[in-house]
Each structure stands twice: as C-alpha cells, then as structure tokens.
Amino acid sequence: MAAYNTLTKIIVGTVPSGTQDSGTTGTLAELINTFWQTLDSTSGAVQSMTSVQVAPYTVAVIIVYLG
Q: Domain residue spans in the chain?
C-alpha cells in the first residue's frame, strides 16, 4: 500500500453575500487564503480542494495537502 503522507484541513464558514474578497478580515475567503499561504509549495503541495454547501450560506472547504 502506498504511503501518501497527506493531511486534511476543513474550513467551515458563511458566505452571506454570495461573494467575498480575501482582503476582507473575518471572511471565509480570508481564512482560506491565510491557510493557503502557510503551505510550502513542495512539502505542503495541495493535492485536492473541494467545497460543499452544508446549509444555506454555509460552506465547508476541504483541502488535502502533503504533510
């Protein structure tokens, strides 16, 4: 069996207006961007990113990356 050495980050937040900018503090877009910026391009390379609506205006973003 292969050892992929991956980690999964799940970020849940609301998008009340339907659009957000990562430059706006406290938004889901800012949370995702802040996490994304912490990843190293080689050792923390993103393998997958998926989003799922869990309720009206609430989204879960699932990021799988190398650990």
A: 6-66
Residue 57 in contact with residue 15, Cβ under 8 Å?
Answer: yes
- Render each residue's pLDDT in the chain as its tens digit; 67 residues: 677 889 999 999 998 877 778 888 888 999 999 999 999 877 788 999 999 999 998 999 999 999 8
Per DSSP, the three-state class of 40 is: coil
Spatial CA neighbour of 47 closest among 12, 2, 16, 14: 2
User: What backbone phi and psi angles, to 5 degrees, belong to 38?
Assistant: -80, -15
DSSP helix/strand/coil, 60: strand
Place of tokens 């050892």: 3
